[in-house]
Amino acid sequence: MARLLFPLRYVPEDEAEAVRRLLDEHEFDWYETSAGNWGISMPGIWLRDDSRLAEAQACLNDFQAGLATEARENLARARAAGEHETLWRRLRRNPAGVILGLAGIAFVLYVTLWPFLRLAQRAGAE
Q: CA angle, 119 as apex, 114 and 122 as ends, to 5°?
């Protein structure tokens, strides 16, 4: 029976292509499903033969561990060079976007907490 091996929703195309190549290199029998015309189906890479599921998952785990290590090294290099993204750099680059984002967060917090604040105010008045 086929088993979902790797969900593809929100996966960059270069990473998905690397997973496809990895599965081909290890000669796994797999197929891919798309999100469909309306984007509501499950896009993913499926393993046809679930008897090799543990082996395939181990390959993917090693692959993803390598990606994580590479991402950490890239971040460390960017930090050492002073090129990593910080809040202050983003604020200098796009002040209106940051201020609008913070205002949106404040609005959501206010709308979320407003009923409780009103309830506490009424309880204090009694």
A: 125
**The model's pTM:** 0.67
Classify the C-alpha dihedral 24-26-28-30 as positive or negative: negative
How many other CB atoms sit within 10 Å of the CB of residue 3? 13
- Domain residue ranges of the chain, discontinuous segments joined by +: 3-81, 87-125
CATH number at 3-81? 3.30.70
Instruction: Let me know the angle formed at the C-alpha of 12 by 64 and 99, rounded to the nearest 5 degrees.
Output: 110
Give per-residue pLDDT as tens, 52-67: 999 999 999 999 999 9
Question: What are the tens digits of pLDDT across the range 22-34?
Answer: 999 999 999 999 9
